[in-house]
Design goal:
The chain is of the alpha/beta class. It is built from nine helices and eight strands. Strands 1, 2, 3, 6, 7 and 8 form a six-stranded parallel beta sheet that branches.
Length: 232
């Protein structure tokens, strides 16, 4: 009995905590930032959202900024016009998951099918096959960690904790005040996931109006993730 309990604990650690430590802590098999200190990459998770994604796309277009959207497959199916617009306006579309569930609590087969289904949805709408992947909450399991070659896993070097409304846009601006060259910046264009607040993206967009001006004064070039990591 003790052996069985020990084996189960070992398996759980092997499947979840160890890959998480190696990826989030040590950056093994993932990309957290780029080497080109003249470039930064804004990334947006959890969408598309019918209210906030169009407003965000308008803001990015106005400021001539190219970004990366890690989309949820079921939402991409529901709002294909937003996926098409992202692609038409030059943004990179990556995979977040087919549903916004933690990979820690899904079998390898379910994760694999979710990746395949999301890639199929994006390909059917935009005509491109996504190769960049960010698991929800950055929680990699052993399957993600060992699945090298087909997908490039992108995490982040700076986050604004913008999934809650507390602190408003000022909190977000403060957290993004020290953007450095090579940073991969994690933000959200949808707030209807577990632990988030539905109207939180409004603060993100309002904060970005000032943050993008600051970025321009620092002469950073805002690029897609593939442009930031192309030489890694």
């Amino acid at each position: 009995m003790e052996f069985m309990i020990s084996a189960i604990i070992f398996f759980i650690l092997l499947y979840t905590v160890i890959p998480y430590f190696l990826s989030r802590g040590l950056g093994v098999n993932v990309v957290k930032r780029g080497r080109d200190l003249s470039k930064i990459a804004f990334t947006f998770d959890d969408g598309p959202n019918p209210v906030y994604t169009p407003i965000l796309l308008d803001l990015l277009k106005k400021n001539e900024v190219k970004a990366t959207f890690f989309v949820v497959g079921t939402k991409a199916e529901k709002y294909p016009e937003l996926i098409q617009r992202m692609h038409n306006e030059g943004h990179l579309i990556g995979i977040h998951n087919y549903v916004h569930h933690s990979n820690w609590f899904m079998s390898p087969w379910k994760v694999r099918n979710g990746l395949k289904n999301t890639a199929k949805v994006i390909k059917s709408i935009a005509g491109v096959t996504p190769i960049y992947y960010r698991p929800p909450w950055g929680m990699l399991n052993l399957f993600d960690f060992m699945r090298r070659g087909k997908y490039k896993i992108i995490l982040w070097s700076i986050m604004a904790e913008d999934w809650r409304t507390s602190g408003g846009s000022e909190k977000i601006k403060q957290r993004l005040a020290n953007i450095k060259g090579g940073d991969v910046i994690l933000l959200h264009d949808c707030g209807d996931t577990l632990g988030a607040e539905s109207d939180a993206p409004r603060n993100t967009i309002n904060a970005l109006k000032d943050v993008l001006k600051t970025v321009q004064t620092k002469e950073f070039t805002c690029v897609r993730v593939d442009e930031l990591v192309e030489k890694l």
